[in-house]
Each structure stands twice: as C-alpha cells, then as structure tokens.
Design brief:
It is a single chain. With about 550 residues, the protein is mainly alpha-helical. It has a domain of about 250 residues: MFS general substrate transporter like domains (Growth Hormone, Chain: A), CATH 1.20.1250.20. Helix content is about 75%, strand content about 0%. It has 20 helices and four strands. The strands form two sheets. The chain has a two-stranded antiparallel sheet. Strands 3-4 form a two-stranded parallel ribbon. A hairpin with a 2-residue loop joins strand 1 and strand 2. Helix 5 packs antiparallel against helix 7, helix 13 packs antiparallel against helix 20 and helix 14 crosses helix 19. It is globular. It holds the Pfam family PTR2. GO terms for molecular function: peptide transmembrane transporter activity.
C-alpha cells in the first residue's frame, strides 16, 4: 500500500470512486432490507434492475477502457490493427441484441435472457483475466498460442452476452409499470443513472487497477462486478413481480436448444472478431439488403408515411458518421491520451469516465432545454438537431487539434483539451441519440416499428466499425500512431464533419416537411415505450424523458 503522502491524482480519483461505490452499495442494502414493496414511490424491482445493470455496465465499460491498451501493450498488435479489432468488437456488440431480443420476445422472456446473458458476460470478463505470455510480433505464431484464443473467446462471450442482456433488461423496467403510469419516465431516468454510474465507476476502478497494478487485476475486477450483478439479479427475482417472464410456457428441451443457439453464436463471434474484413463485408451486404427492404416497403405506402420513411432513412444514414468519430474515444483517442497528453499521473483509461459523468450532468439540462424551447416554438427539428450533433463532434476534434498545436509538437497536449473534446462530443451525443430514438418511434409505421429500431442500432454498429477503420488510419503505413499524423487525421475528419453538418442543416427544412408532424396521430402500440434502452455511456440509446 502506497503511503498517502505519495498518492498522485490517479490514486485519489480511484479512492473517491471507491467511496462513491460504497455509498451506492449502502443505499442498495437499505433498499433490499426494507420490508415495504416500494421505495421512494417506485417498486423495489426498479432498484434491483438498477443495481444489476450498474454492475453490468461497471464491468463492460471498465473492460472497454482497457481493451485498446491490452491489445497494444500486452498482445503487441500494432496501433492500427488494435483499433480495427476494437471497432470490430464494439460493432458486434451492437448487432447481437437483434438475436437476443428476438429470442426473448418469442421464447425465453426477458428475465431468462438476461440471466443467460449475464452468465456469458461473467465468463467472458473472467476469461479476460487470463493473460498468458506477452504477445509477439509474428501474428501466425501468436494465433497458435492458447492464451490468445482464450482472449478471442472472452470477447465472443461478452459480445453474445451483451446481446442477450443489453436491450432486455431495460424492457423489464417498463414492464414494472402500466403503460399509463406517470412514473415511467422517472423510472427510466433512475435506471439510466444506474447505467452511467456503473460506467463511470467501472472505467475509473477497472482502468486504474489494469494500468497501475496489472491487467488481470483490472479485468478480474470487471468479472467480479459482473458476478455481483448476477447475484443481485438472481436474489431479486421476487421483487420483479412477474416482469420479464416467457410469453408462453416453454418446453425444457426447447429452452435448452435456445441456449445452444447462444453458444453457437459465441463460436461464430469467436471467428468474426479475428477476421475484421469478413465483418466489413457482412455489414455492407446486409446493410444494402436492409436498405432495399425498407425502400421496398416504403414505396408501398401512401404519400405521407412514405415521406416519413424517407426522413427516417436520412437520419439513420448520419449514424455511422457520428459514431465513427465519437467512438474514437475508446480507440485512437485513448491511445493518444496515454502517449501525448499531460495526464498528471492519471491512467489514460480513467479519462473514459468523463463521458458518462458529463451525461449524468447534462442529460437533464438538455431534456429541460428542449421542453423550454418547445413551449416557445423555438425547438430545432430532429434533422436540425442532428446537424448540431455533427457540428459539435467535428468541432470537438478541431478544438483539440488547435489546443495540441498551440503548445508545439514537442510539448504534451494540455489535459484541458481532453475535457473540452469530451464536453463537445457529449453535448453532440445528447443532440442525436435521444432525438434519433424518438424520431424512429414517432415516424415509423406500426408494422415496421421494430425493424426501424433495429436499423437504427444496426447503423450504430456500422459506425463503430467505421471508428475502427478511422483508428486504423491513425497508425499510418507502419501501423504505429504518431502525434502529427493523428492530429492531421483528427483535423481532416473534423472539417469534413462540420461540412456535412452544414449540408444537413440546409436540408433540414425539407426533411422536416417529409416528417409531416402536423398530421401525426397517437397510436396504441403494446410495448412501444420499451423500444430502445436508456443511454449507456458511449452506447447511445437515451433516457425516456430526454
């Protein structure tokens, strides 16, 4: 134990995070020990789901903050290759919820799907703690080593586990309330806080241990966090009051076969995450097929709903650009922070906590701002908000590059500009993510609602893969990042994105007209409120009140 007088900023941040975690766990114990069915006006099941999801996000985002460093520093992949693997992994995390959601809706129910996903996630995070020997530069030899295959297996387990857990647990929140219950928005806000508290604390504590003490300690803590979430979920079954149960009785052999599908999916992901070019081809082919089907269905509609579909496609098409830039956070920007920023003793992975902290602070502000502007007829349209989001994410890179160049190439970039980039990217995120989900739900015809929501998340997956390709480019021909080349790419993509935002803003009146908001009518769609999930830091669905 280091003497307190020798603690640096990283040590103090970790201790503060540990204290905050202790406070939340104490509150959780008090709620669990209460004999009343409700706490603070909400069913106890909400708080059980809050803590289960908090631990899941703790483990997932903690591991995510370390991943790029583990790839470059332990397995010795080049910077470019590491970014590509990171992008492939995060894109697959966004695709598998389609499988997990479908199997839960049709067969398992959300509770069993979450439980199965949680088991896979716990195994995946614990396997991440198996380090093996350091990687060597000969990729062919490295692939034959047992430890690297355990690593691929760990990523595959986390990908599929997220697919079963990610969307289903947020659906269960809605099932605790009637559709007309006025507490629903508040419930999702509470749940959303759990997501971001877990994301912030996980990145700090897991990142600190992984970079300061050892990889296995950081990944091991992430695994322990996931196991803790599973325990909370299993012990809290009774307070769910039947939420998340299967839609119909399920035969044992059929249930086992569904779990078998999940295991088979792990094998597929184990292969895909190693061969990123295959993922790229799959995304292109399936994306074109999805676009073709949506257009086919659109042209069968009457004029107004058809034009609403065109507006949806316009908004969805902007997803990959935004997330491709935004998701540099865990990849190339994480590496840049580690190597070229004056961090003052704070591990670079800990800076990943800035985004969830900003979200907790600013999401209520943005929700109130839109309402305030709306009452005065000044609220920007959805496409105009998308233009603002793109402008902010592009401006974030331009401000950062300007700040880095202002001190000269030989001087470490001041940490202030890291906070500025995350601030602009987070406010951009809050202009796009909740607005996009709302637009998908409002504009899609009822018989295409789930498909359109799936398309939204699919294009988010494409954006994550694009992020990996951009990150790969920062490595240049040698595969190793340089400060000058990375800043050059950041400047270029910043300018391009601001240029696109200007075009989107110019087109926004046309797209707004396509939306035909004046003729929209309320419709009763069972489960409509459960589409999507609250905002996880860097993962992008938003709280229902936003």
């Amino acid at each position: 134990m280091k003497d307190m007088g020798l603690w640096d900023e990283g040590d103090w941040i970790a201790v503060i995070a540990l204290v905050v975690l202790g406070v939340f766990l104490t509150i959780g114990a008090l709620i669990a020990g209460s004999k009343k069915p409700e706490f603070a006006g909400h069913p106890k099941g909400l708080y059980m789901l809050f803590f289960a999801e908090m631990w899941e996000r703790f483990s997932y985002y903690g591991m995510r903050a370390l991943l790029i460093f583990y790839l470059t520093q332990h397995w010795l992949f080049s910077d470019g290759k590491s970014n590509l693997i990171y992008g492939a992994y995060t894109s697959l995390v966004y695709i598998t919820p389609v499988l997990g959601g479908y199997l839960a809706d049709r067969y398992l129910g959300q509770r069993k799907a979450v439980l199965f996903g949680g088991v896979l996630l716990a195994l995946g995070h614990l396997f991440m703690a198996v380090e093996g020997d350091h990687g060597i530069t000969d990729a062919a030899v490295k692939q034959s080593e047992g430890a690297i295959n355990v690593f691929w297996l760990a990523l595959a387990l986390i990908i599929v586990g997220s697919g079963f857990l990610k969307a289903n647990i947020s659906v269960m929140v809605g099932q605790l309330y009637r559709l007309t219950d006025a507490r629903r928005d508040a419930a999702y806000t509470i749940f959303y806080m759990g997501i971001n508290v877990g994301a912030a604390l996980g990145t700090i504590l897991v990142g600190y241990l992984g970079q300061k003490i050892g990889w296995s300690y950081g990944f091991g803590l992430a695994g322990i966090g996931m196991v803790a979430g599973l325990i909370v979920f299993v012990l809290g079954k009774n307070v769910l009051l039947g939420a998340g149960e299967a839609p119909a009785p399920l035969a044992r052999n059929k249930e086992i076969s569904i779990y078998g599908i999940g295991i088979a999916a792990v094998a597929v992901m184990w292969a895909l995450v190693q061969y990123q070019d295959v993922i790229q081809n799959i995304l292109i082919v399936s994306g074109l097929a999805l676009l073709g089907y949506v257009l086919y269905e659109s042209f069968k509609l009457d004029k107004e709903p058809r034009e609403r579909m065109f507006a949806i496609l316009f908004l969805i098409a902007l997803n990959p650009l935004f997330w491709g830039l935004f998701e540099q956070a865990g990849g190339s920007f994480n590496l840049y922070t580690d190597r070229f920023v004056d961090k003052g003793g704070v591990p670079a992975s800990v800076f990943q906590s800035i985004n969830p902290i900003y979200i907790i602070l600013f999401a209520p502000v943005f929700a109130a701002l839109w309402q305030w502007l709306g009452k005065r007829g000044l609220e920007p349209s959805a496409p105009a908000k998308f233009a603002l989001a793109l402008a902010q994410v592009g401006l974030g890179f331009l401000v950062f590059v300007w700040g880095a160049n202002s001190v000269g190439p030989a001087v470490a970039t001041p940490v202030f500009f890291v906070f500025m980039l995350y601030l602009l990217h987070t406010t951009g995120e809050l202009c796009l993510s909740p607005v996009g989900l709302s637009a998908m739900n409002r504009l899609a015809p009822s018989f295409l609602a789930s498909l359109i929501m799936g398309a939204w998340f699919y294009m988010t997956a494409v954006g994550n893969f694009v992020a990996g390709k951009i990150g790969e480019a920062t490595g240049g021909e040698s595969g190793n990042m340089t400060k000058e080349a990375t800043l050059g790419i950041y400047w270029e993509i910043g300018l391009i994105t601001i240029g696109v935002s200007v075009v989107v803003l110019a087109l926004s009146p046309i797209v707004k007209k396509w939306m035909h908001l004046e003729t929209l009518r309320d419709r009763e769609i069972p489960g409509r409120e459960e589409l999507g999930e609250p905002q996880a830091a860097g993962t992008h669905p938003e709280p229902k009140g936003a």
